Amino acid sequence: FSLKKLLLDFLTIIYSHCPGYPFPTAPPVDPFAKIKVDDCGKTKGCFRYGKPGCNAETCDYFLSYRIIGADVEFELSADTDGWVAVGFSSDRKMGGDDVMACVHDDNGRVRIQHFYNVGQWAKEIQRNPARDEEGVYENNRVTCRFKRPVNVPRDETIVDLHLSWYYLFAWGPAIQGSITRHDIDSPPTSERVVSIYKYEDIFMPSAAYQTFSSPFCLLLIVALTFYLLMGTP
Fold first, then answer.
1. Does the record bear Chloroplast in its keywords (predicted)?
2. Which of 39, 103, 142, 169 is the most exposed place for a label (fewest CB within 10 A)?
């Protein structure tokens, strides 16, 4: 028997004979600290995808990053009951990418996993650079926070974050704690490579808010307006 177990058994016997003294309970687990969006563009970089003006609790997808010593701290959140992830890529296409995912399992926990995209398939990598992991599933959202080193030993599946990469954003359902295909056919990506040393607050409208954003739509609006103002002949 271990010393810890012997002490626990001894305390149990003592407290069973002292009904006036309740047995001590384990200290409460610290609640997940909400993601602060007021810091976006100032002390951390952020990407928001969804409705204009959305935050970490209302965006379809949210990501933040900031440097803390020799690490980069990431915060991710998405409107899903499965998983949310960020990929680091040399281009804007899926394949050959280093991916960090926060996965909601059947026990209600949110685990941080490391993947490597092989074509359109995400292969889990046992070497996981994440540390100081925490996550929560609330209000049909998966939210997490973790750190990973800026510099890592040379490895095909883990990139050095001091270099600039395109960021790939994805989220979707999970089955028994295993990720499945992402929610949308063409997940958003950063328009240019991202430097962790540059903090920006970048908003990307989701499909529902892109209706009139293309040059063709704007030209059509101008033409219809001109037609209505001029009247029919």
1. no
2. 39
Q: Are strands 110-118 and 121-124 parallel, antiparallel or unpaired?
A: antiparallel
Answer whether 70's CB lies under 8 Å from 148's CB. Answer: no
Task: Tokens for 225, please give them.
Answer: 């307006």
Using CA atoms, how far residue 151 sits from 73, 133, 192, 225, in Å, is 13, 18, 21, 55
Placement of tokens 């990053």 in the chain: 65
* Residue 94 domain flag: yes
pLDDT tens, residue by residue, 172-192: 999 888 888 887 888 999 999
User: Model-level pTM?
Assistant: 0.78
Strand partners, 167: 88
Locate the DSSP E strands across 69-220: 71-78, 83-89, 98-104, 110-118, 121-124, 131-138, 141-149, 166-172, 174-175, 178-179, 201-205
Please indicate, yes or no, if residue 40 is contained in any of the structural domains: no
Contact between 40 and 59 under an 8 Å Cβ cutoff? The reply is no
Q: Is 129 a domain residue?
A: yes
- Tally of structural domains, the chain: 1
Asked if 231 and 225 count as a contact pair (C-beta separation under 8 A), the reply is: no
Domain membership flag for residue 11 = no
